[in-house]
Structure formats: structure tokens, C-alpha cells
Write a structure and sequence with these properties.
The chain has about 500 residues and is an alpha+beta fold. Helix content is about 55%, strand content about 10%. It has helices spanning about 5-10, 20-35, 40-50, 75-80, 125-170, 170-180, 205-215, 240-250, 265-280, 305-315, 320-335, 340-345, 350-365, 370-390, 400-405, 410-420, 430-440, 445-450, 455-470, 475-490; strands at about 55-60, 65, 85-90, 95-105, 110-115, 190-200, 220-225, 230-235, 255-260, 260-265, 290.
């Protein structure tokens, strides 16, 4: 065994490669350091081919990281790993061996790059080995930094999603506590707007970064867990809307939908509004839309009677512990607004959990959510409760029914005028829509009742959407408002609710 200086003297430059050869291997090594070519195993294999030898890289415990196993003097390897020497050269038994210390990402500390040849190391081979060892250290350090950055970004993204999920189930106190650690003041507000920005799934990460930059990190930016191309933005800052519009204006692949300002407890409602506005934005030249404020049926009802009626309707859930009750109500609200699968992804639970919670509410209310009139009625009660907050309410008299609540002249006029829009179509869209709702939104069952093809039913319902300015084929607020209109004019029977 010889020390480093002696080994270096033994490998004299034979001039066989020259400057041109040096430039060639250096360019190849640089190529392996480009972002698209970075791979430790590939560099080790390249080094073996370049110096016409066998190369291995192992960690401080002797675990092989790259290349084939290479017999080493373990004492010498330990001295290199422990830092007593930086490198060493050895020859014997027809082999020429070069060992170099390589810094590894923690907790490994250091490793050994071993290069074995059957020919002595000339100056070119020494240079290639030394430069490759340095390149491996740079690559491993960059991978460690990149991996740390990815882990931090993933953790931050998961935290944003957790905050959104807390807001979706109306746990604003916990959401503020979680947000305060990284984004102080972000949720120090009573109200906020929700925006949904849509792009292709492959461009969503870049869009999310652009949304963060556009809102100056003063908004909750979340990659939607339910829709691969959606980015959800919850912001208390009105200026964010203009910045998001500007962002979408500069991108031809982005569409923006926004909600009206809502309390933080109604984040789920605001999200539904933003998704509804997104559907409108797809057909607008500016590719952006905000949920249109219009006359909603609950605003035409007597607030005190609505509050009392909803309190009595949901009273069976009052026997639950507060946390369980809030969990059931929030899950049901989302499950009625979206599909069970989408609600599960937004809440971060399984779809079976969503269905089990909704089935529990069904049992307590003595009803069946497959009935659209039931869904619309419970949806009305849940939203009325959220709007009223913690205000106490006395239960309405037992005689107060949904039909009594819908009997006001203002509401009746609104319902009559809304459904009258359908009368101008010669296809009798109104009859089809009424039958489709009564059939639970099932086109095949409605087609049997009407004596037409199921595709005809779907086409009629789809044709009614622009006339009523509401989405019908997707469950949610728009559909439930149309159902309530039918109930108000007595075109549908009052749903069965037997709590």
C-alpha cells in the first residue's frame, strides 16, 4: 500500500489522450450533471467505462450504493470513512485500486468510492476519478436539498389541505389554530371568498405556484383533492380576485370561478358557488365568472319560521355529542352538495365513511336521501341553520310543515315565474323535469313513466338548464332550488320526513 502522493507519482501522464480526450470525458461528465441526466448509478457506470475498470460506491456501513461489489481493505476503508485520510491507492495481485472519500447526505456521513483497474492509473485516470468523486458529492448534496425542499413543499401543501378540510366542516377555531403557525393572520377574519381555478392536471402544480405568487401568500391555496385540474383559493382579501383574474387572463389554459363573500363557517357553500360559477366561466370570452347573486327561495321565507322549522326538523341530531353532531351535519351538507366520492376527497375520509354518516342522518330523520325532494328539504334546513349561527330558536308548532313554509306569496310568485320559463318550449320541458325529479333524477325511470327514450329525458333536462340558469344534472344548490319551486307550486308532493 502506498500513500496518496506516491500513488500519484506512479501514474505518470502517457500522453495517449491529450487535451482533446480530456475535453471529451469532461463534457460527458457534465452531461450527467444536467437535470435530465442526474443518476448516481449511471455516473458510477460511466466512470467504470471511462477508466476501463470496476467502480463501486458504498456508505459508511459498507452498504453498496452503486456498482458491483469491490474487495477492499476494511481497515483502510474505515480510515477514509472516519476522516483520518481523504484517499488512498493500493496495488497488488495484478490490481490497482484507488479509494476516495465521498461526503454522503445525513445520516450516512461519508462513503467510499472504489476504482479498481488491471492497469496503473495514469494522469488522465486520476483526473477522471477525482473529478467524478467531486461531481458525485455535488449531485448527492443537490439531491438532499431537492428532497428536503420536496418534503417541505409536500408538508406545507398537506397543511393547507388540512386547514381547508377543517373549514369545510365548519371547525373555524381549529382551522385558525393550524394556520396561525405558518400564516399568522391569514384567517383572522369572519368572512372570505372562495375561488376555483381550473387547468389541465399536468399544469396544476405550476398554476398553484402562480396563485400563491399572485396572492402574495395571503390566501389559502390548495390543490383540490377531488378534481385533478382544480386549485382552490380561500381569501379574505378582495384584491386577490383582481390578481387571480389577471393571472387567468395571462394564461390561455386557465378558467376562474368565484363565490360571493361568505362567513368562514360557510366555506363549503362558497366552494359550491365557485364550482357553479366555474361552469358559467367556460362559456365566457374572459374565462372567468363570479357566482351571480339572485333571489334564493330561503330569502323569501319568514326567517323566524324558517329557523324554527329547521331546528325542529334537525332536532333528532341534538341527542348526539356536539362533535359528532357537527361532523354528521357537515358531512351531510357536503354529501348533498356534491357526490359522495368528491365529498370524501374534500373531507379527507373514505367514501364509505361519508355514506355511513349520511345513512345515520337518514335514520335519525326517518327519511331517504334517494328522494330529491327530501334532499332539497334537508339541504334547506342545513343551510338555514348555518345562516342563523348560534342564535337560539324555539321550535315551530307541530302543525308547521314544509308546505306552510313555502306558502308565502313572495315565494309562490318566485316559483311560478321561474318554472314558467319552461313553458315557451314546445317539447314540454316542464313535464319532463317534474317527472325526472319525482323519479329521483333517474333518467331511465323517468323515461318509463313518460313513455320516451332515456336520452330524450337527459336532453330535455339539459335543455332546461340554460332556461332556468341553473345546473340540474349535477346535484347541488341549483337543483334543490328548482325542486323547492316545484314544491311551492304543488307540482310535487311534500317529502316524507318522520324524525
Amino acid at each position: 500500500m502506498r500513500d496518496e502522493e506516491t500513488a500519484g507519482m506512479a501514474g505518470r501522464d502517457d500522453g495517449s489522450r491529450g487535451v482533446e480526450g480530456a475535453e471529451h470525458w469532461a463534457q460527458e461528465l457534465l452531461g450527467h450533471l444536467r437535470p435530465t441526466g442526474r443518476d448516481v448509478r449511471r455516473i458510477v457506470d460511466w466512470l467504470a467505462g471511462t477508466v476501463d475498470g470496476t467502480v463501486s460506491l458504498r456508505d459508511h456501513d459498507g452498504t453498496l450504493l452503486a456498482g458491483p461489489p469491490t474487495p477492499l481493505d476494511e481497515g483502510l476503508a474505515a480510515d477514509i470513512v472516519n476522516g483520518r485520510i481523504a484517499s488512498a491507492a493500493w496495488e497488488g495481485d495484478g490490481r490497482y485500486l484507488r479509494l476516495i472519500r465521498v461526503e454522503l447526505p445525513p445520516p450516512a456521513g461519508a462513503g467510499v468510492l472504489a476504482v479498481s483497474r488491471t492497469a496503473p492509473f495514469d494522469r488522465r485516470a486520476f483526473e477522471v476519478v477525482n473529478h467524478t468523486a467531486a461531481a458525485l458529492e455535488l449531485l448527492l448534496r443537490a439531491e438532499r436539498t431537492t428532497a428536503t425542499g420536496h418534503r417541505l413543499a409536500r408538508a406545507t401543501s398537506d397543511l393547507r389541505l388540512a386547514i381547508l378540510q377543517l373549514l369545510m366542516v365548519e371547525d373555524t377555531i381549529a382551522a385558525r389554530r393550524v394556520a396561525a403557525g405558518l400564516w399568522p393572520g391569514l384567517l383572522d377574519t369572519d368572512t372570505a371568498c372562495v375561488y376555483v381555478v381550473e387547468t389541465s392536471p399536468r399544469d396544476r402544480d405550476r398554476l398553484a405556484d402562480d396563485c400563491l405568487a399572485a396572492t402574495h401568500d395571503r390566501a389559502l391555496v390548495v390543490r383540490c383533492p377531488a378534481m385533478d385540474g382544480h386549485v382552490i383559493v380561500v381569501t379574505p382579501d378582495d384584491r386577490a380576485a383582481g390578481r387571480l383574474r389577471g393571472l387567468c387572463g395571462r394564461r390561455t389554459d386557465a378558467i376562474l370561478g368565484g363565490s360571493t363573500r361568505q362567513s368562514l363557517a360557510r366555506t363549503a357553500t362558497a366552494y359550491g358557488q365557485a364550482v357553479s360559477a366555474l361552469a358559467v366561466a367556460r362559456f365566457r370570452p374572459e374565462r372567468a365568472a363570479v357566482y351571480a347573486e339572485r333571489t334564493h327561495p330561503e330569502r323569501l321565507m319568514d326567517p323566524a319560521v324558517l329557523r324554527a322549522w329547521s331546528t325542529r326538523l334537525l332536532r333528532p341530531l341534538d341527542t348526539m355529542p356536539h362533535h359528532t353532531r357537527a361532523e354528521l351535519l357537515a358531512t351531510t351538507r357536503l354529501g348533498l352538495e356534491f357526490t359522495a366520492v368528491s365529498a370524501a376527497k374534500v373531507l379527507g375520509v373514505s367514501r364509505n365513511t361519508v355514506r355511513a354518516r349520511m345513512e345515520r342522518v337518514e335514520g335519525l330523520l326517518g327519511t331517504d336521501f334517494s328522494d330529491l325532494t327530501v334532499r332539497a328539504t334537508v339541504h334547506l334546513a342545513l343551510n338555514a341553520q348555518v345562516d342563523a349561527g348560534e342564535e337560539p330558536a324555539e321550535p315551530a308548532a307541530p302543525a308547521t310543515r314544509l308546505t306552510d313554509l313555502l306558502a308565502g306569496p313572495a315565494l309562490h310568485t318566485w316559483a311560478r315565474d321561474l318554472l314558467a320559463r319552461l313553458d315557451t318550449d314546445t317539447r314540454d320541458l316542464r313535464r319532463t323535469l317534474r317527472t325526472w325529479i319525482a323519479a329521483g333524477g333517474n333518467s331511465e325511470r323517468a323515461a318509463q313513466l313518460l313513455g320516451v327514450h332515456a336520452q330524450t329525458v337527459r336532453e330535455h333536462v339539459r335543455s332546461a338548464e340554460p332556461v332556468l340558469e341553473r345546473q340540474l344534472l349535477a346535484a347541488g344548490t341549483d337543483l334543490y332550488e328548482v325542486v323547492l319551486a316545484h314544491l311551492a307550486v304543488r307540482d310535487l308532493e311534500e317529502p316524507a320526513l318522520r324524525p
